[in-house]
Design a protein that fits this description.
- This protein has about 650 residues and is an alpha/beta fold.
- Among the domains are: about 140 residues, Rossmann fold (3-Layer(aba) Sandwich), CATH 3.40.50; about 120 residues, GMP Synthetase, Chain A, domain 3 (2-Layer Sandwich), CATH 3.30.300.
- About 30% of the residues lie in helices and about 25% in strands.
- The protein has a 7-stranded mixed β-sheet, with helices on both faces. It has a 5-stranded parallel β-sheet with strand order 7-6-8-11-12, sandwiched between helices. A 4-stranded antiparallel β-sheet has the order 21-22-24-25.
- Helix 3 crosses helix 4 and helix 14 packs across helix 16.
- The chain is globular, with a radius of gyration of 24 Å.
- The model has no long low-confidence stretch (mean pLDDT about 95).
- Bound molecules: 5'-O-[(S)-ethoxy(hydroxy)phosphoryl]adenosine.
- 5'-O-[(S)-ethoxy(hydroxy)phosphoryl]adenosine binds next to helix 12, strand 24 and strand 25.
Length: about 650
């Protein structure tokens, strides 16, 4: 048992929300939570119809849910526009001149964009998309730094019914190429470069490299000038964002779209093959993002809300852009690294903008702990009222530090479990109601029928490990895997009949709280980023020197998991330091810096069963530096275990 699991099992500390906090919250106690939750799962039509009335509709729906397992249609027959919900409806209200986005660039510049201004910018850019003949239903890739124009590009697509697919700026040219091909993108929206730790990330150059071989449907690349670095402009294909603006006006009515119209595709790693394109649609997704901001962050008009995720991840989609803006909230965006120019950057931002709600990841919290309390202590963090975490299980030590050092012991923590596929929060505390315990995401959110089951799909007793499932459809669920219905069915709906299988392991304690232990498939969670072991293996074997590769995770104090690769080389190839470095670089080129191996171990052979399956369980134990235990009787060649034992260097 790992130290972390042992800590969690013995966790007895309970933190109740302060009375003053509860008094002002939308959900003020557990009785209220339970009553609403019961209604949400037993009478979903009633619950969701009431919540959906928060959104503005061009045409009301006829039916709340049409469920043909595993395909869901929510708010059937309704029409609405996501950008209209995030922008237009705040105009002519007290929010018109309120900050929609507060932005700080890594070098230090600042912009405050009101709802009126953001609306105008989005209309202008939507007209640029029209001018470039990009049409409703077509796909556009967005590969941008964390600048307001990233949100503007997303919202402009949404305004016209163009399907965006945002690719994280830390992914490589090769990843862009794969995604363009998979979703058939007709255009790419990018920037010359973005700032990261004082350096410029050459975004446009990566796009050029991705498109250089041709044979793709991209006919237009729109480039925003951010970093001023030199770039190549391909005549007839590339245009400057600022130049295009000269040709358009700001008159651009939102297009009323079907509730089920695709909104975006976001690629995420699975246990096999290349990343899959998770498809989200209009009404259900927006409602999920909206109501979680309403009840989980309990957002208020005077909040300054900061979600530190990049818009390249689903957290950035739901909780930097769509959720907060649909609530008319102020969303803070920061472009760069938390340790630039020093380790106090986050706390300085919080102090200077009076941030009241902070949503970040356990991996960041662990890094802050390592950097030392003196950094947050230099700043006044008294504006904070609520803290949140997402991305991986939070270890109780990190939770306590977050609570005491950042929250000053007064801010509730919402530990939110969810996934790219779920669109919004699924298991989480509600800050004015739920007594929290360090390390658990606590209880299901409204409309979520979560359970922990055994291999036969039977619910397990308290404190027994099992698989996390969701037993009913929910509005913000993924609709399919882009272009691959069979993979959608197989990955999520075939493990157990009638249940969504999340790929995570969990147990419930005697109070019914969910303790999520992490992925139980071949997906790693490195610094809160999902990385498929199969993807890294695929990258390694695409190198001419590599015969075979097996990739596993090992516990890492800061990142949660580190990437360890076992590699056998082709005959005649010298397995030396130079090759090790070359392979690390190769993985970065093929996938991106997020997937950089922490360690590469050369092996003469990989441990396999007699039927030829790589024995990952053994490799995991070896990677973690543990003695190999358990059943090794099916191992093909026992002597190789000894040879695998030596670490890098
Ligand atoms: C993990 C991120 C424990 C989990 C929103 C899930 C968590 C995967 C938590 C999804 C949490 C996310 N506690 N584990 N609060 N939040 N996870 O798609 O393994 O990037 O399956 O979505 O992150 O990662 P994804």
């Amino acid at each position: 048992m790992s130290k972390n699991t042992a800590n969690q099992l013995s966790e007895t500390r309970v933190f109740k929300p302060a009375k003053e906090f509860s008094k002002k919250a939308r959900i003020q106690n557990m009785a209220q939570y339970r009553a609403l939750w019961e209604e949400s799962v037993k009478r979903p039509d009633k619950f969701w119809a009431r919540e959906a009335a928060d959104l503005c509709w061009n045409k009301k729906w006829l039916k709340v849910l049409d469920w043909q397992e595993p395909f869901a249609k929510w708010f059937v027959g309704g029409r609405l526009n996501v950008a209209e919900n995030c922008l237009d409806r705040h105009l002519g209200t007290a929010r018109q001149n309120k900050a929609a986005i507060i932005w700080e660039g890594e070098p230090g510049e600042r912009r405050v964009i009101t709802y009126q201004q953001l609306h105008r910018e989005v209309c202008l850019f939507a007209n640029v998309l029209k001018r470039n003949k990009i049409k409703k239903g077509e796909r556009v890739l967005i590969y941008m730094p964390m600048i307001p124009e990233a949100a503007i590009a997303m919202l402009a697509c949404a305004r016209l019914g163009i399907v965006h697919s945002v690719v994280f700026g830390g992914f490589s040219a090769e990843s862009i190429k794969d995604r363009v091909a998979d979703c058939g993108a007709v255009a790419v929206i990018t920037a010359d470069g973005g700032y990261r730790r004082g350096a410029i990330v050459p975004l446009k150059a990566n796009v050029d490299a991705a498109l250089k071989d041709g044979g793709h449907p991209v006919k237009r690349v729109i480039v925003f000038r951010r970093a001023g670095n030199d770039i190549h402009i391909e005549e007839g294909r590339d245009v400057w964002w600022h130049r295009e603006l000269e040709y358009v006006d700001a008159n651009c009515p939102p297009v009323p779209l079907d509730s089920e119209a695709p909104l975006f595709i976001l690629y995420t790693s699975g246990s096999t093959g290349k990343p899959k394109g998770i498809l989200h649609s209009t009404a259900g997704y927006l409602l999920g993002a909206h109501i979680s901001c309403k009840y989980v962050f309990d957002l208020r008009d005077d909040d300054v809300y900061w979600c530190t995720a990049d818009i390249g991840w689903v957290t950035g989609h739901s909780y930097v852009v769509y959720g907060p803006l649909s609530m008319g909230a102020t969303s803070l965006m920061y472009e760069g690294a938390p340790n630039w120019p020093d380790n106090g950057r986050f706390w300085k931002i919080i102090e200077e903008f009076s941030v009241s709600v902070l949503y970040t990841a356990p991996t960041a919290i662990r890094a802050f702990i390592k950097w030392g309390d003196e950094w947050p202590k230099k700043h006044d963090l008294s504006s904070l009222r609520l803290l949140g975490t997402v991305g991986e299980p939070i270890n109780p030590e990190a939770w306590m530090w977050y609570h005491n050092v950042i929250g000053g012991g007064r801010c509730p923590i919402v530990d939110t479990w969810w996934q790219t596929e779920t669109g919004g929060h699924m298991i989480t505390s509600l800050p004015g109601a739920t007594p929290t315990k360090p390390g658990t995401a606590t209880l299901p959110f409204f409309g979520v029928d979560a359970a922990v089951v055994d291999d036969n799909g039977q619910e397990v007793p308290p404190n027994t490990m099992g698989k996390l499932v969701i037993r009913k459809p929910w509005p913000s669920m993924l609709r399919t895997v882009w272009g691959d219905k069979a993979r959608y069915k197989k990955t999520y709906w075939s493990e157990f009949k009638g249940m969504y299988f999340a790929g995570d392991g969990a147990r419930r304690d005697k109070d019914g709280y969910f303790w999520i232990t992490g992925r139980i498939d071949d997906v790693l969670n490195v610094a809160g980023h999902r990385i498929g072991t199969a993807e890294v293996e695929g990258a390694l074997v695409s190198h001419p020197a590599v015969a075979e590769a097996a990739v596993v995770g090992r516990p890492d104090e800061i990142k949660g998991q580190g990437v360890v690769c076992f590699v056998t080389v082709k005959q005649g190839v010298k397995a030396d330091y130079a090759l090790r470095d070359a392979l690390k670089k190769h993985v970065r080129t093929m996938i991106g810096p997020v997937a950089t191996p922490d360690e590469i171990r050369f092996a003469e052979v990989l441990p396999k069963t007699r039927s030829g399956k790589i024995m990952r369980r053994l490799l995991k134990q070896i990677a973690a530096g543990n003695a190999v235990t358990g059943d090794t009787t099916t191992l093909e060649d026992f002597s190789i275990l000894a040879k695998l034992g030596s670490a890098e260097d």
